[in-house]
Amino acid sequence: MPNPSSASRDQNPKGHFLPWVMWGFGALFYFIAIFQRVSPSVMVGELMRDLSLSGAALGNLSAFYFWGYALVQLPTGVLADRWGPRRLLGFSAAICAFGSFLIAFADSSTIAYMGRFIIGVGAGFSFVTTLKIATDWFPTHRFALLSGLTVMIGTVGGLTGQAPLAWVVGEFGWRGAMNGAGLFTLLLCIGIIISVMIQGRPKGKAQGIDKKTTQPLMYEIAQALRQPQTWVLAAAGFTTLATLFAFGALWGVPYLMEVQGFTRPQAAGSMSLMLLGWGIGAPIIGWISDRFARRKAPFVFCSLVALSTISLLLYGPELSALGINILLFINGLFSGAVILLFATVREHNEARVAGTAMAIVNMGIILSGAVMQPLTGWLLDNNWAGQMDAGQRLYSATAFDQALWVLPLFAAIAVGMGLMIRETHGRALRAL
Q1: CA-to-CA distance for 267 and 276, rounded, in angstroms?
Q2: What pLDDT, on the 0 to 100 scale, is given for residue 210?
Q3: Is the model's pLDDT at 114 over the cut of 90?
Q4: What is the 3-state secondary structure (H, E, C) of 114-128?
């Protein structure tokens, strides 16, 4: 039986071009989402000084993005399943732009929290809608690869939010940087709206609308949650990216500066290697998984490598700057295996709730950042010796040692969750 979305593409003279335009807009918005996710890591000192924040408070400020992001995951999945993803992109980009402007003009921590939360709400639509576009418009065998490419583009956003953003903050201040991010997002929003008006809407499934869907929203959520593997995969996502969110997106830069003696540009550049590895690893691991029709084994192997590298980095023998950079890159590279969780959960659930199931996994991943960033900040505060510099707290090497042990712990749990994954061999559950 022919694929409806493929048939629609064949009937549309723009069929071969339109899917890439649609996916491209979603991927570009995901670029912005990841940029915003990691941006506080190069503003730690300025934010703590200007907003009078402790380590735990800064962790909470950064984590408000993740709470907002997580809040919209289930609604995003349901909306993507029912009404299609494109109409969500322009609206969510506008929300994200507003949050950027709000935090740029914040004169108190409360306003900054609100801005960060709103940014998270807007950014929360980015990834699942892009995956839904890939589901509706591209062949099934390309899904893991397209998922990996989406992550790769998002990673470029993360890289932009490290060393390049550190330079911008040094030149124009963190408020100027956030104003620039808001303007860029607003321009993207306008571009999405114009493109939708010009291109119109394709028919049938290519539009992403399941006209046969009549069940209540909570029924679709319940259907996805009724599948035990959905819970396993969400938990695997939570633990897999704990290191990337807590270390790569927030505390890694101050750790390298205080413990390893890096300058801020050097530290930001080194942390960029973790994100670069993640962006490279995701599409490669996705391609390998598709090529050999295996999900479980690659995930478990990659999780073991990620556990080994973060353990060596934090508690192994003293390393040179080159050694540190190599471990950061390898850790990010193999953490890219998280992308396999989306392909796996899609194959364990019925097609009509695929977006919802992927949203649940994404929510588990995002909650990792919401929990791990303030948890790590709280542990640092508990081991703080009282040192201050220009209004910001300074944490010693001992404080970092006694706070970052949670990262290898969660990496080890990720390995255990991987062993609980049921192999799909790259096929939908009903085909097994």
Answers
A1: 14
A2: 45
A3: yes
A4: HHHHHHHHHHCCHHH
Q: 162 with 274: CB under 8 angstroms?
A: no
Helix (H) or strand (E) holding 386: none
Helix %, strand %, coil % of the chain (to 5): 80, 0, 20
Q: Which of 141-155, 164-178, 268-282, 316-330 has the lowest mean pLDDT?
A: 141-155
| Residues in the chain, overall count | 432
| CATH classification at residue 187 | 1.20.1250.20
> How open is the CA angle 237-239-245, to the nearest 5 degrees?
90
- Give me 128's structure tokens: 């699942």
- Domains identified in the chain, total number: 1
Dihedral pair phi/psi, residue 392, rounded to 5°: -120, 150
Could you say which DSSP state residue 422 is in?
P
Strand segments, DSSP code E, in 193-283 are: none
Main-chain dihedrals φ then ψ at residue 81, nearest 5 degrees: -70, -40
User: Checking phi first, is residue 3 left (phi over 0); if not, alpha (psi -120 to 50) or beta?
Assistant: beta
The alpha carbon dihedral of 126, 157, 411, 423 has a sign of positive
CA distances from 31 to 14, 37, 178, 239 (A): 25, 10, 15, 23
**Rounded to 10 degrees, what is the CA torsion of 250, 254, 257, 263?**
60
Could you tell me the residue range of the domain that residue 315 belongs to?
4-431
Distance, CA of 345 to CA of 143 (rounded, Å): 12
Is residue 254 scored above 60 in pLDDT?
yes
Judge contact between 371 and 250, C-beta under 8 A. no
328: confidence class by pLDDT, cuts 50, 70, 90: very high
Beta bridge partners of 392: 389
If you write DSSP's letter for every residue of 294-307 in order, what string do you get? -SHHHHHHHHHHHH
pLDDT tens digits for 160-218? 887 889 889 888 999 999 999 999 999 988 887 777 676 555 444 444 444 444 456 67
Residue with tokens 């989306």: 342
> If DSSP codes are grouped into helix, strand and coil, which group holds residue 208?
coil
Question: Is the per-residue pLDDT at 141 higher than 80?
Answer: no
